[in-house]
Amino acid sequence: MAAVLGHNQYGKAENRVVRVFRGRDPHELVDYNVSVALSGGQEAAHLTGDNSAVLPTDTQKNTVYALATEDDAVAQPESFGIRLARHFVDTTEPITWARVKLDMYPWSRLGDSPHAFARDGGHVRTATVTYDGSATRVVSGVRDLVLLKTTGSEFWGYLEDRFTTLQPTTDRILATALVAQWLHTSEAVDWGRSHDTVLAALTGVFAGHHSLALQHTLYEMGSAVLAGQPEIAEIRFSAPNKHHFAYDLARFGLENDNEVFHADDRPYGLIEATVRGDDAPDPAGAFDPGQGW
Amino acid sequence: MAAVLGHNQYGKAENRVVRVFRGRDPHELVDYNVSVALSGGQEAAHLTGDNSAVLPTDTQKNTVYALATEDDAVAQPESFGIRLARHFVDTTEPITWARVKLDMYPWSRLGDSPHAFARDGGHVRTATVTYDGSATRVVSGVRDLVLLKTTGSEFWGYLEDRFTTLQPTTDRILATALVAQWLHTSEAVDWGRSHDTVLAALTGVFAGHHSLALQHTLYEMGSAVLAGQPEIAEIRFSAPNKHHFAYDLARFGLENDNEVFHADDRPYGLIEATVRGDDAPDPAGAFDPGQGW
Amino acid sequence: MAAVLGHNQYGKAENRVVRVFRGRDPHELVDYNVSVALSGGQEAAHLTGDNSAVLPTDTQKNTVYALATEDDAVAQPESFGIRLARHFVDTTEPITWARVKLDMYPWSRLGDSPHAFARDGGHVRTATVTYDGSATRVVSGVRDLVLLKTTGSEFWGYLEDRFTTLQPTTDRILATALVAQWLHTSEAVDWGRSHDTVLAALTGVFAGHHSLALQHTLYEMGSAVLAGQPEIAEIRFSAPNKHHFAYDLARFGLENDNEVFHADDRPYGLIEATVRGDDAPDPAGAFDPGQGW
Amino acid sequence: MAAVLGHNQYGKAENRVVRVFRGRDPHELVDYNVSVALSGGQEAAHLTGDNSAVLPTDTQKNTVYALATEDDAVAQPESFGIRLARHFVDTTEPITWARVKLDMYPWSRLGDSPHAFARDGGHVRTATVTYDGSATRVVSGVRDLVLLKTTGSEFWGYLEDRFTTLQPTTDRILATALVAQWLHTSEAVDWGRSHDTVLAALTGVFAGHHSLALQHTLYEMGSAVLAGQPEIAEIRFSAPNKHHFAYDLARFGLENDNEVFHADDRPYGLIEATVRGDDAPDPAGAFDPGQGW
Questions:
Q1: What angle do CA D1, D4, D10 make, to 5 degrees?
Q2: Has B57 been annotated as catalytic?
């Protein structure tokens, strides 16, 4: 057996780019964490340390900041990812594949100030763009979307075995810190509007759906997203079941009718599911495997 | 020289209590991280392991969850802290001093749902209540309040020495993740309304003030808070100067008129200041020393 | 287009199990973070909320702690993962696939104490075991292995483009926080000894190899691991290039011959590579995709 | 009531300095996180934005890296802190007070390599140096020292009240992630040797002492440190009681004689104690208030 080089990729991770649009009144800004990964032609660097096909990660960093000057590209995480991924593959001879992952941190204007903002901590918008010289795959997403409902959630009728001690319930708190990623089949998308529409579908189902299991809720969320935007081929969820345990106060002669809870840290359930169109294309490595799967 | 026991305190830290008000329509909830510390009469436990004056931290935990059933107490972090601190000192013989620290995580209702919520990640509301059997000291606060302004901030005219390389600027991004704590002189306070008023003063000054230094801005913020609520005796700030460096794009023939920034992590400036009324009482250990100082 | 359920899995994540061997003199212990994921027969739970094929994650938790009583299984992360994965698939009717991921936190005995330990923070040992009812795939690994060499590392001769500003160097600090995972082709392995052998190979190459690029070093590390243990089919690395920048002290008339460095946080290079035997089998989903890829 | 400026301080926090001693064979290195805070003469900066007495935090950063060239100063965290604190106060007119806090990350040589190292993750060594133009106060410390004993720990005989549910025990796991800080009365100290001696005393008592409460163990640790090094005036501990709960396996017909534990996250006990010489001087603000108190 001889050792050979398998899949490899390299890039500059976590470039923290803030772009201000000072020409606009009031000012606007976008705030990104951009990670680049490239592949193609890197055998010599690995085998002999010949770096002649290596575009240094330092150069990739400079490129990210330089292309952030382009107003149209930088305005949305998906368009900025597309711009960067194509730049690297199309202009750098040995590079045949690029993936750009972006986190976008939302900010809110402070009152009617023309230039002051507060960071919205509620969730992070994400994008993963993959380009191989011909096909561009765009995945949008969200993470750290923390949702909770105080009722409207049951869990019973499950398998029992020797190690079962859980009591069935017809009323519990359901809470999660949702990670979701969805694959587009088109680039002719208003990325901001599409993102808002998906978010509204996810939170609308979470609030309105009567849940018999977190799995049940995720599937309903995914179906609503696909129904609302047919160009979305597939959506993947990774949803921790953030357990809220009703505290046993009967020991102290106190009633606790699902009012006082301990929010536990670990362990937690982790429910992961895909909902896809029955004619959806093979996603072929478009999703970020680090986000939950 | 003989060894003696100095200051000591003990308690249960980070009780994660979620209290739902199911009797209300729509449902409401409060979400706390509660830490208790007690002192008094603990010499024997330290010197000989005689625990007869020790109220176990497990019992303290049970107490936190039990008193969370009391609607009036639990509704605000300050009132819950007062209720708990007095309970421990007033009902437990050897205990002479209690401090209760609370983080409160804000949630927003999802649309008009009667029972579904999304966590607001924007900032955490805090309270520190200290009680010694007679005086109760109440400190309210906020942390992780991330603010940024894209202009309206200068920094120049500073001391120079052998190691000075910084260039003066008349236009820079100013950004911070503010920690603030303020001491009340009264308990006859509508805690929720008072908190909102302080927050509005802090963010209003940040947005509207023309800043010549972060120190300058903090002092103005503090003055505004004291002017607006005379019962507040003193406010303390711990404010990282979250540096945003304009990226040097001239090397690539590109203009960067304060539009493309690198948001740096470390090191960062850390500006800490107190603003107090000229007749304010000695705060005497009321502030949480772990929050910035 | 109709919505259909795609890949799904669920389980209890981050069970923090500490197992003490009290019957041994001196005492021994293992300290794990165990995450279980199961698949098979979960359509009804998603589509209609019928949970009759769901083994609750609470039951999975109980099982993890119950099987931790078995001395032989629990002693090594790989053997505990195998025991658990097979248990779930082989004893639970609808379950057809299980993945068990384990972190193992190393501890050192305090002196010659029979029962006191200090946690070694140096790195975390990992294992990922996947079982589908017939094949068992065992991947061992390490993460947070922070390595640094003060010389013996060059980087030059790379591609240049419009955005290149990096200066070539023939002497730099090389540092990384290594994540590595390797796939076994056998279960007849002394897991503890094998792990130590891999670690010695990785650190030995890192120390002794003259590096022309981090890619160059990773490939050499991987080759050494495969050469030393032919039953290892493939090894994957995810290696941040933790940049240490020589601080420009010439501005102050001070010399800095690669002695004073700023350890930067972000962005960082991220170098990822696979080294495999030329006749290695398809790893077929054996690797944990969340560890770097 | 008029607003006035109270205590204020400012500085550059978290300068990540790595200093390599390349002139030595084999190479040596120290790895610090250095935070500087200065006070004195800052009224105008706060009240009017007049920065003429402000030494910019950027200049402070340059100073930290510049003085890291001095071999004797940089070798130990205490000596580096002394060097920096005195530099700022003694050479900068308005500055009258300086505090320098340092984290030191330990590294181990890889085998007998002359230039390769692995980071020891076990604990962080700390120092806090405060200087007011005349007195220099040096506090050494450690944090994240994670210790566990599998037996030799009891807890019983405590106060009981209405909310007591804890069962007394004569055998439990005792575990903590120790934070300790101790104040020196001399600078004529071999800092490295002194640190090793304290660490040996702390871990030796933890291992050998039969504990009736974590308070009991902390006091014994502190007494041992003071007995061993009379120049140490006072030591402060902040010790989370990291609960390990024996898992209830009797429900499954399995025995669990203190062998299988769940390591819980939150809440946790937090035990804080001071041990001091009966003739020790007033520590007068020498301790870092952010480390546990």
A1: 155
A2: yes
